[in-house]
């Protein structure tokens, strides 16, 4: 998958999390498994998306939530 497609998939997974009654931060291991990527590559992608304002994550990129900017990106 391309980087753009992976970003879109990450955002879709984070949007699914919002549908839970009590949304929690999403572990990168869960995202990596769904994308069939390594946790290391997933964390790197999450960190990039954090710097772009699409997600809010910890400094290691291990846990994340979608931001308003990420929601706007999904809507386009």
Describe the structure.
A three-stranded antiparallel beta sheet has the order 1-3-2. The chain is globular and about 30 Å long. A hairpin with a 5-residue loop joins β2 (55-57) and β3 (63-66). The protein is mainly α. The model has no long low-confidence stretch (mean pLDDT 93). α1 crosses α4 and α2 (28-35) crosses α3. It is built from four helices and three strands. The protein has helices at 3-18, 28-35, 39-51, 68-75; strands spanning 26-27, 55-57, 63-66.
Query: What is the gyration radius calculated from CA atoms?
Result: 11 Å
What about the largest sheet?
3 strands, antiparallel
What is the overall number of helices? 4
Distance between the first and last residues' Cα: 20 Å
Binned strand content: 5-15%
Number of beta strands: 3
Spans of 5+ residues with little confidence (pLDDT < 50)? Answer: none
Report the mean per-residue pLDDT as an integer. Answer: 93
Q: Output the helix-strand order.
A: HEHHEEH
Helix share, percent: 55-70%
Principal-axes shape call: globular
- Coarse structural class: mainly alpha
Strand order of the largest sheet: 1-3-2
What's the helix and strand layout?
Elements (H helix, E strand, L loop, with lengths): L2 H16 L7 E2 H8 L3 H13 L3 E3 L5 E4 L1 H8 L1
Antiparallel strand pairs: 1-3, 2-3
Helix pairs in contact: 1-4, 2-3
Concise account of the structure shown:
The chain has 76 residues and is mostly helical. Helices cover 59% and strands 12% of the residues. The protein is built from four helices and three strands.
